[in-house]
Amino acid sequence: MRVGLLVTCLVDLMRPRVGFAALELLERAGATVVVPPAQTCCGQPAYNSGDRADAASLARKLVDEFDDCDYVVAPSGSCSGMLRTHYADVLRDDPAYAERAKALAARTYELTQFLVDVLKMRADAVPGTFAGTIAYHDCCAGLREMGVKAQPRALLAGVDGLAVKEMAEPETCCGFGGTFSIKFGEISSRLADNKCQHIVTAGVDAVVMGDVGCMLNVEGRLRRRGDTVRVLHVAEVLAGDGKAR
After folding, report:
1. E strands within 12-167?
2. CA distances in angstroms from 71 to 2, 31, 138, 203, listed in the order given
3. What SS3 state is found at 224?
4. Helix (H) and strand (E) counts for the chain?
5. CB neighbours (10 Å) of residue 10?
6. Helical H runs in 82-184?
7. Within a 13 Å sphere around the CA of 161, how many CA atoms are in the beta-carbon half?
8. pTM for this structure?
9. 19, 31, 104, 205: which could join 3 in a potential S-S bond, CB 3.0 to 4.6 Å?
10. Per-domain boundaries in the chain
11. How do beta strands 160-164 and 71-74 pair?
12. What is the pLDDT of residue 69?
């Protein structure tokens, strides 16, 4: 099984350890992982901003790079959601790529979704350890575009020493939304404050989620509020990297 790892821009630039953790988890579950070295952006920022030309150009590049992979997996519900939900639309008028984009979309998965639903990874096979309690935030694209909800919780249940405590409104947006946080800053800030309050009220040691964009948004708001709750990617916790800081 040849699995292409879509590292994503934010992982590459801001949290590269998330990419290494994803690689470790996939290999532990039995996948042969390839990481196309020239991969860049999936095109989502351009697409969300109405720049279809640049979005299509980036989509074609990604389709070419991952065309020989049995699956494409990303440690991001947002980027995997872009491929799964929007690539067919982005390339619908390109005869050379329209069908290839649909085929790529059908074999694209978010990391925990792939581990649980395709590789059938059991909770007792998770290598991570974590001494403390966490709340899980359901990032919008992963939840609504990819159907990721139970999978990360199922795997987190196998992390030695970890206890999951549900916070209020785990499915409510953190306010990031990519370019939404720039275009609608006041609304975004209110959403982020609400999310941070739910996290703090839950009384957990860390909040865990599956998208680095949401992580950066929540962590930045927590720190500006003076809160010290840790913000971790689910791959870090599952692979054992969350314990080191």
Report:
1. 32-34, 71-74, 108-110, 129-136, 160-164
2. 7, 10, 23, 38
3. helix
4. 14, 8
5. 20
6. 87-90, 98-106, 111-113, 140-144, 150-156, 180-183
7. 12
8. 0.95
9. 31
10. 2-118, 123-243
11. unpaired
12. 98
